[in-house]
Structures are given as structure tokens and as C-alpha cells.
């Protein structure tokens, strides 16, 4: 029996796939993530052996788990593109059109460049109909409602890759049958494509009729659209490209993290290269935290924000709400390449508090308080830390835009002695921003729980871009 399972990695919106045949007992994994136990669990669930691991391309937004999965299983070979590839670790080379027989179904490799030069997609065909695919793993070439961005390798390659992407979409995908199901490498929320749709799969026919990337009459207008419409490139993408090309560290288990009592924690936090990551909720962090800590809450999107804000060689010192959550938090962190841990605060902030050690707080301003402050005080700067696209779609009147991703290395144009209030869509990124500012010497920073969502929910006025320029 044919089996296909989609593995969604929340936070980075990455999609990997497990596909197999229970009759022959053979299976493959496409684009595995770092923590690979889930694929072994799926193999046991279906009573098959993973014999093949396929990479569609060199990934930029997460650390590939191919080497770790191969080492863990001992039964699976890694297969990599041989087309303009930059892989620096051993693997079997795949050529365009190469076919892999799993019994009742075949996987056929297709060179689909554009997002990257080496990019592969894999058609799924019944063994009895080898020339008529019924589905395809598209990697980062074609998404639901979008397509892969061609600008991640730098401006000198963007034009050529955008032309490759056009040929891939128009000369390959649009020539497939309407009924062919597409299984992409990412879902909504990934920066690997612009405005990726919410559904995890689609069909060629549906995309033909609805996907804006498939509606351009010529290459030039397509290039203008695909280059100009792309979201900002996250800082860590080029770094993860290098990691995945050279061969990620084999991780057969999560790294050991030392449990540190408050006095030892305080000593370690002063060591060079150490950053304090407080993973509690924004309200808990606001109530009291260790000076210098950065608040990135324990939610799936933590993976992307840790990758975005911290260097790979920095050592992370963790504060969690409960010691039992250390492994869960660590799992999210390693997905974007961070495997250096200086330890965690044993007993959490309660232990720090009982030890009588100093704490800072961050004021939480409700939207009602913010509105009243705008009317009665006005001696503060309201910072909108959302993305440029969110900012352009509408904002709180009087706000100044300060995209949080641009705060990574420096916070320019702001007086550290000033008074600031940060907001985002929900408060999550606002708390990251306010904690970054506090850690760098800003003396009066608050953030808004609920943020833009709460502001709209209570019906306060909003400002549109055209209104701001009148």
C-alpha cells in the first residue's frame, strides 16, 4: 500500500515528507529536519524501512537532518542533486530524469532551478503509469499561491535565477496535468516565498488558475514581480546555506545542557560569547527578568527568531518557565543551527528570586492605556516593529517604523535616554524588541500585549499609508 505523510515543522513552516510502500517495505524521506526521530517513528508506524533520503536543494531557513537521519538509521542513503550543486559532503548524485523504484510507485527526479541552481523536484508515479505523475514534491520551486524566491544567493545571481525560475514554472509545471497534486517544501509564514498560501498542498490546475506567479505573459514582467515582491531576506539564511552545503553536524541526540544554580548562572552569564535567552511569556518576562536577557517566548516561531537574532557561535544561556521544558525549547532552537548551550537556570526565576539576586522589569501597556497616553501625554515614541508589509497595510496612528530584524546588530536613530513603547501583531515580537533595547542600554522601554490585534479589536482608529502622506 502507498503511504504518504506530511511533517509540518511549525515556526519555520517547513514541510518534509515520508513516502513508502508497505508491500515492499521501502520508504523515502524528502528534506528531513534536524530532529529526525519523527521519521523513524513513521517508519515503525507503517512497518517499513527508510532506504532513501532526498534533498531537493541546499536549504537556507533550517538545518538539514539528512546526515543525522542517515547516521541514526544505518539503512538509508543520501541522494543529492548533481546539477550545479555546491554540496561538500558525500552523497549519491542524482541526474535529471533519474527514476527510483519503490515497488508500487516511482519517484522521478526533475531539475527545477530558479530558487537555487541545483534545485530538484520529485514526481510521484504509479509503477504501471511511469510517464504520468499523479503528484510531485516541489521543494522550494512552486508553493501554494507562490513560488520560490530567486534572490537568496545574492544580487549577482538573482537575474539568472529568476530566468531559471520562469522556465521552471512555465516550461515544466504548467505543462503538467491539472490533477497533479503539489506537495511544497514550505507553508504559510516562510520567508522562502512571498505570501505562501495557508493550505499544505494544492493541484497544478488550481495553481494555474489562482497563482499570481503563473500569470505573466513574458519574462521581464515576471522578473519585476518576483524580485520586487519578495520579503526581506532573514539575516541567518546565508549562514544556514553554508552550514547545509558543508554538511551539518550529525545530531543523534540533543546536546546536554548543564543545570546551573543561580550563583553559577550569574558567573557564566558574564563570560564572553554568552547570551541570555529567556523563553517565558512576555507577561512573565515583564514582571521580572535577569538583566541583559532577551525574551523570545517558547512558541514554534522561536526557531526563526533565534536564528535571526543570534550568531551561530554564540553560547545560549536559557531561562525557562519550568525545568521540564528545557528539551522542548532546545528542540526548537537547534532547528535553525544553534547547538552551543552554556546551561540553563535550574529552578527558573523562582530560584533567582529566592537567592535575592537583582532583577529588571518591563512595563506592559494595554491598548487602552496606550490610547489614553497618546491623548494626555505624548512624550514617548511608539515603535511598530512589524515587517515592512505589515506596516504598509495599516498601523497605529503616530507610530514610527522600526523593523525588529534590523535591530539585530544595532538600533540606529534612537536616543537611549528616550521613552519608547513597542508593538507588533500580538505582542510577541514587541517583547523581543523591548528586551533587545533594554539589553543595549535603553532606559525606558515598554511593550503592548495584544498589540495591533488588540488595538483593532477595541475599534480604535488606524492609519493607512496614504493617510500618513496627506
UniProtKB/TrEMBL annotation:
User: Which terms under GO biological process does the entry name?
Assistant: glutathione metabolic process; hydrogen sulfide metabolic process
- Glycoprotein as a keyword of this entry, yes or no, is no
The GO terms describing molecular function are: hydrolase activity; metal ion binding; sulfur dioxygenase activity
Keywords linked to the UniProt accession: Hydrolase, Metal-binding
Does the keyword field hold Hydrolase?
yes
The record's Pfam families line, in alphabetical order, gives: Lactamase_B (PF00753), Rhodanese (PF00581)
EC number(s): the record gives 3.-.-.-
According to the entry, every stretch annotated as the Rhodanese domain falls at 270-361, 376-464
Q: What class of enzyme is it?
A: hydrolase
Supply the PANTHER family for this chain. Answer: PERSULFIDE DIOXYGENASE ETHE1, PERSULFIDE DIOXYGENASE ETHE1, MITOCHONDRIAL
- The name under which this protein is listed is Putative polyketide biosynthesis zinc-dependent hydrolase BaeB
Q: Which organism is it from?
A: Thalassoglobus polymorphus
Its taxonomic placement starts with: Bacteria, Pseudomonadati, Planctomycetota, Planctomycetia, Planctomycetales
Point out the gene that encodes the protein.
baeB
Amino acid at each position: 500500500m502507498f503511504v504518504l505523510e506530511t511533517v509540518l515543522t511549525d515556526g519555520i513552516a517547513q514541510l518534509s515528507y515520508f513516502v513508502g510502500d508497505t508491500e515492499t517495505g521501502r520508504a523515502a524521506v524528502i528534506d528531513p529536519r534536524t530532529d529526525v526521530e519523527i521519521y523513524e517513528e513513521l517508519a515503525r508506524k507503517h512497518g517499513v524501512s527508510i532506504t532513501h533520503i532526498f534533498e531537493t536543494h541546499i536549504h537556507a531557513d533550517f538545518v538539514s537532518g539528512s546526515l543525522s537521519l542517515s547516521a541514526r538509521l544505518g539503512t538509508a542513503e543520501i541522494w543529492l542533486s548533481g546539477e550545479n550543486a555546491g554540496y561538500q559532503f558525500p552523497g549519491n548524485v542524482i541526474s535529471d530524469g533519474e527514476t527510483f523504484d519503490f515497488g508500487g510507485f516511482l519517484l522521478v527526479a526533475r531539475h527545477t532551478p530558479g530558487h537555487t541552481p541545483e534545485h530538484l523536484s520529485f514526481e510521484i508515479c504509479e509503477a504501471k503509469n511511469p510517464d504520468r505523475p499523479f503528484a510531485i514534491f516541489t521543494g522550494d520551486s512552486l508553493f501554494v499561491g507562490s513560488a520560490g524566491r530567486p534572490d537568496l544567493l545574492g544580487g549577482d545571481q538573482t537575474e539568472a535565477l529568476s530566468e531559471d525560475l520562469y522556465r521552471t514554472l512555465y516550461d515544466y509545471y504548467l505543462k503538467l496535468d491539472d490533477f497533479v497534486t503539489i506537495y511544497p517544501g514550505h507553508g504559510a509564514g516562510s520567508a522562502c516565498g512571498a505570501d505562501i498560501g495557508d493550505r499544505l498542498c494544492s493541484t497544478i490546475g488550481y495553481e494555474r488558475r489562482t497563482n499570481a506567479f503563473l500569470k505573466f505573459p513574458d519574462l521581464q514582467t515576471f522578473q519585476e514581480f518576483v524580485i520586487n515582491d519578495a520579503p526581506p531576506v532573514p539575516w541567518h539564511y546565508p549562514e544556514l546555506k553554508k552550514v547545509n552545503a558543508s554538511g551539518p553536524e550529525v545530531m543523534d541526540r540533543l546536546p546536554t545542557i548543564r543545570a546551573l544554580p543561580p550563583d553559577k548562572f550569574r558567573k557564566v552569564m558574564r563570560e564572553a560569547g554568552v547570551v541570555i535567552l529567556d523563553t517565558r511569556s512576555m507577561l512573565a518576562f515583564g514582571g521580572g527578568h535577569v538583566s541583559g536577557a532577551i525574551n523570545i517566548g517558547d512558541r514554534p516561531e522561536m526557531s526563526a527568531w533565534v536564528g535571526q537574532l543570534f550568531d551561530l557561535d554564540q553560547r545560549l544561556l536559557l531561562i525557562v518557565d519550568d525545568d521540564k521544558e528545557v528539551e522542548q525549547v532546545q528542540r526548537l532552537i537547534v532547528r535553525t543551527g544553534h547547538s552551543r548551550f552554556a546551561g540553563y537556570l535550574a529552578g527558573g526565576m523562582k530560584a533567582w528570586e529566592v537567592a535575592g539576586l537583582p532583577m529588571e522589569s518591563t512595563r506592559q501597556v494595554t491598548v487602552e492605556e496606550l490610547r489614553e497616553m497618546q491623548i494626555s501625554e505624548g512624550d514617548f515614541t511608539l515603535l511598530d516593529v512589524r515587517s515592512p508589509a505589515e506596516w504598509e497595510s495599516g498601523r497605529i496612528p503616530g507610530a514610527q517604523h522600526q523593523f525588529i530584524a534590523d535591530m539585530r546588530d544595532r538600533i540606529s536613530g534612537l536616543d537611549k535616554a528616550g521613552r519608547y513603547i513597542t508593538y507588533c501583531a500580538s505582542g510577541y515580537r514587541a517583547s523581543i524588541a523591548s528586551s533587545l533595547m533594554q539589553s543595549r542600554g535603553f532606559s525606558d522601554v515598554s511593550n503592548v500585549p495584544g498589540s495591533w490585534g488588540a488595538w483593532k479589536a477595541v475599534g480604535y482608529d488606524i492609519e493607512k499609508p496614504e493617510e500618513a502622506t496627506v
